[in-house]
Design brief:
CATH architecture of the largest domain: Roll
Largest sheet: 4 strands, antiparallel
CATH topology of the largest domain: Chitinase A, domain 3
Order of helices and strands: EEHEHEEEEEH
Number of domains: 2
Structural class: mainly beta
Helix content: 10-25%
């Protein structure tokens, strides 16, 4: 019998995010995303509620208004500067630049446009202002161990490190 998703179950799933307006896939995660149901908020509460009672092999679709998750788009977070003012290592579309924002909190800016003279960065979440559909495929459901529940996720063994120093003879 298949286990069903409920409190303290370890769940692995894959998902994709589809823009409702254009139908384009915005994000696709095929490798298993694992979490402890009811213990951590990896997914929004609307998505978590829809997963409740599902089991391996189930596919669900959850519409999400990203304005509720990330707030409305803020054009004051979009900056364009002359390209010579931007270090070369940041001159690539899709590059994330991490800066220190208010209260010393990190803020991510993504390079969204670039030409020979200018570079534009955007500090809005890429899903800001969009209405999307999360399509999730449940890959597995099992009891979480006490250690996983305490840690809030899967326990991964740390790699062994060889601290011996080899001196050539």
């Amino acid at each position: 019998m298949n286990e069903t998703i409920r409190e303290n179950k370890f769940v692995e799933l894959s998902y994709e995010v589809i823009d409702q307006k254009s139908g384009h896939v915005l994000t696709k995660v095929e490798f298993p995303l694992g979490y402890i149901h009811g213990q951590n908020e990896v997914l929004g509460s609307d998505v978590t509620k829809e997963l409740e009672g599902k089991s391996a092999g189930d596919i669900i679709k959850v519409p999400v208004d990203c304005n509720q998750l990330y707030g409305p788009r803020d054009e004051s977070l979009v900056f364009t500067d002359r390209i010579e003012n931007v270090p070369e290592e940041y001159r690539e579309i899709g590059m994330t630049i991490i800066t220190e924002g208010e209260n010393n909190q990190p803020r991510n800016f993504i390079v969204t446009r670039m030409d020979d003279k200018t570079l534009t960065v955007d500090g809005n979440n890429p899903l800001c202002g969009r209405e999307v559909v999360f399509t999730l495929t449940v890959l597995s459901v099992r009891d979480a161990s006490d250690e996983e529940i305490e840690a809030g996720g899967k326990i991964v063994a740390e790699p062994e490190i060889d601290n011996t120093v080899k001196i050539p003879v």
